[in-house]
Amino acid sequence: MRLVIVTGMSGAGKSSALKMLEDAGYFCVDNLPIQLIYKFVQLTYNGTEKFDKVALGVDIRSGQALEELDMILERLKSENYPYEILFLDAGDEVLVKRYKETRRIHPLSGTGRVEQGIESERERLEFIKRKADIIIDTSQLLIRELKTQIDKIYTLNEKYHNFFITILSFGFKYGIPMDSDLVFDVRFLPNPFYDQTLKYQTGNDQPVRDYVMNSNMAGAFLNKLEDMIAFLIPNYIIEGKNQLVISIGCTGGKHRSVTLANELAARIGVLEYGLKVEHRDIEKDARR
């Protein structure tokens, strides 16, 4: 039997992840009292009704009883009941925004500020995050992208690293993305904008891709960037970082940056980290 304990920050997507696991054939139980977890695990492993896949939702709603979870997990481990912990996380600013958009009250904020509730929750969940087998940061993920990650790990049984990379193309004339960790300027490359046959196409179109990549500078830049990213990621992971936003910009964010973002994604996709490509400004100033 495969037992997954699903937990994480309120607003980070735990409920959505449980629904996805349920759709994948898992028997799901959410917010079971902490004191009943040990008995529940015994029944699912040793009971007359056999379960192949079980997901158990645990979060801050357990109140003070959450402090007992650490002891229960140690007991399960000592008695050879295997389990995995999936921890859903997101940046504080993202969580605040989600709460404000949905007008929900954070479980620990009461009549106070959402930020204070998030800070308190993060402190109380730190012990289980340290034990987590999988940490998924949903700050940059759409629901369908989260589903893709859940399916890879718990349906297709693919290897997953607790590190997610977003490669983002953008136009400098619209501003540098605020959540960027690394920013690269590719305006030194030949610009397809000045070719009338390519002006209204984008880096997603083959003619533009060929135009950009036919420059020797594009290949040399990608080689150096790929080497640097391969060097940086393991060191970021050692320092506890679990996501990386690589922003690649050109003037308008439609041609060169889109091409280079796609090419970089194709190269580092083999590293088996979570990965998505986003083209922020590709539709701006589109021809009507």
From TrEMBL:
The keyword Nucleotide-binding applies. It comes from the Bacteria. Residues 165-283 form the RapZ C-terminal domain. Keywords: ATP-binding, GTP-binding, Nucleotide-binding. Residues 1-155 form the RapZ-like N-terminal domain. PANTHER family: RNASE ADAPTER PROTEIN RAPZ. This is Nucleotide-binding protein. The lineage of its organism: Bacteria, Bacillati, Bacillota, Clostridia, Lachnospirales.
